[in-house]
UniProtKB/TrEMBL annotation:
Gene3D superfamilies: CBS-domain. The chain crosses the membrane at residues 35-56, 62-81, 121-143, 155-176, 197-217, 223-244. Coiled coil: none annotated. Residues 72-143, 154-200 form the Peptidase M50 domain. InterPro entries: CBS_dom_sf, Peptidase_M50, UCP006404_Pept_M50_CBS. The keyword Cell membrane applies. Its main location: membrane. Belongs to the peptidase M50B family. This is Zinc metalloprotease. Keywords: CBS domain, Cell membrane, Hydrolase, Membrane, Metal-binding, Metalloprotease, Protease, Repeat, Transmembrane, Transmembrane helix, Zinc. It comes from Pedococcus ginsenosidimutans.
Length: 380
């Protein structure tokens, strides 16, 4: 279960936003938040149904399947309760919630982590397991008053499902909610969220190893036959290991980005009007040219190869607009070259573009290329 994801703009109340395609079937919209059922969810539904129905198949197969399906739906409900708790706390702190998705590994809540602090993010992460713990206790309290074998099985199933979700997700390792809490604790103690990601990732790797040793290696060493249950442990372990590794990679990558200054990857640039002649352009080595409109806003980029293709005799009569390529309206990077490179990365990634015009103090000061950022990060 993940409590947060990188920010996106929340879709409206009409058709699904383009980045929501492929998420699965939208089964509800709660308080304006779309809830999706991913195709992979049906895999876990089949697994739960098979496990629950197996003891009853020889004598009461229909009842076994019915109880299995009911438990699978109960799991879905418990997962949605878990994710709804994340969403409710996030909204309480003013974080826009984009969507909730239930999938084969449980689910995740995507939100924009704006105006966030370690304490807020820790509470958002802890809200999911806490909600499951409360529901597990309520189901446990209801057991003595439930009559009938079927009813008892279903309520007991709610105890197991909610209890398992609460205990598993609060373990202190990425990608679990407890790992996010650990990340926030390290973030609060050191002031460095990236270090928190790395610590929580390594903790997740340790937990994964312990999980495999206890739930797979120990039974096999005692002579237990390797069946579906043991293989499922390995599948879950592989997912946890992958999430933990991604947390470590992300922490290291963002730390590197934080050390890289925008000025280290930026090319100085001159701003010119579109009607200026190519012959009027400065010839300073290493500098680039950005075309601006009458208000001084960057609109186009003059590629060096296009500029070199203009014959010397034609330069006085060739306008800059003839060798300039218009850019996405969002290509402007408003940032101080002395600051870190993150504003440029955010712009280039958001619009899927390869070049950005750096503006500081109301004027064009440079051009930044995605390839240069990639090379600089690779060297670091």
């Amino acid at each position: 279960m993940t409590a947060a994801a990188p920010g996106h703009q929340a879709p409206g109340h009409g058709d699904e936003a383009p980045d929501d395609r492929g998420l699965g079937v939208r089964i509800a919209r709660v308080a304006g938040i779309p809830v999706y059922l991913a195709p992979s969810w049906f895999v876990i539904a089949v697994v739960i149904t098979a496990i629950v129905a197996a003891p009853l198949l020889p004598t009461r197969p229909l009842m076994g399947v019915a109880i299995g399906v009911t438990q699978a739906l109960a799991l879905l409900a418990c997962v949605l309760v878990h994710e709804a708790a994340h969403a409710a706390v996030a909204r309480g702190f003013g974080m826009p919630v984009v969507r909730i998705v239930a999938n084969v590994w449980g689910g995740h809540t995507s939100m924009e982590a704006v105006r966030t602090t370690p304490g807020r993010m820790a509470l958002v992460a802890a809200a999911g397991p806490a909600a499951n713990a409360v529901f597990a206790l309520l189901a446990w309290a209801a057991l003595p008053v439930v009559t009938g074998d079927v009813g008892n099985r279903l309520v007991y199933g709610l105890v197991i499902i909610n209890g398992s979700l609460a205990v598993l997700n609060i373990l202190p390792g990425m990608p679990l909610d407890g790992g996010q809490v650990l990340e926030c604790l390290v973030w609060k103690a050191t002031g460095d969220r990236n270090r928190g990601s790395v610590v929580a990732g390594w903790s997740g790797r340790v937990l994964t190893v312990l999980l495999v040793l206890w739930f797979f290696v120990r039974p096999v060493a005692s002579g237990q036959t390797v069946g579906f249950g043991l293989l499922w442990v390995l599948v879950i372990a592989s997912v946890l290991w992958g999430g933990a590794t991604e947390s470590i990679r992300r922490g290291h990558a963002l730390a590197t980005i934080g050390r890289l200054r925008l000025g280290q990857v930026m090319h100085p640039a001159f701003a010119v009007r579109a009607d200026a002649a190519v012959s009027e352009l400065p010839t300073t080595p290493g500098s680039e040219v950005v075309v601006v409109d009458e208000h001084g806003r960057p609109t186009a980029y003059v590629d060096g190869e296009h500029l070199a293709s203009v014959p010397p005799e034609a330069r006085p009569h060739t306008p800059v607009s003839a060798v300039a390529s218009h850019q996405h309206p969002g290509w402007v990077v408003a940032a101080d070259p002395a600051g870190d490179v993150m504003p440029a990365i955010a712009v280039l990634q958001e619009f899927g573009i390869a070049v950005g015009a750096v503006v500081h103090g109301g004027r064009v000061v440079g051009v930044v290329h995605a390839t240069d950022i990639g090379k600089a990060l690779g060297r670091n």
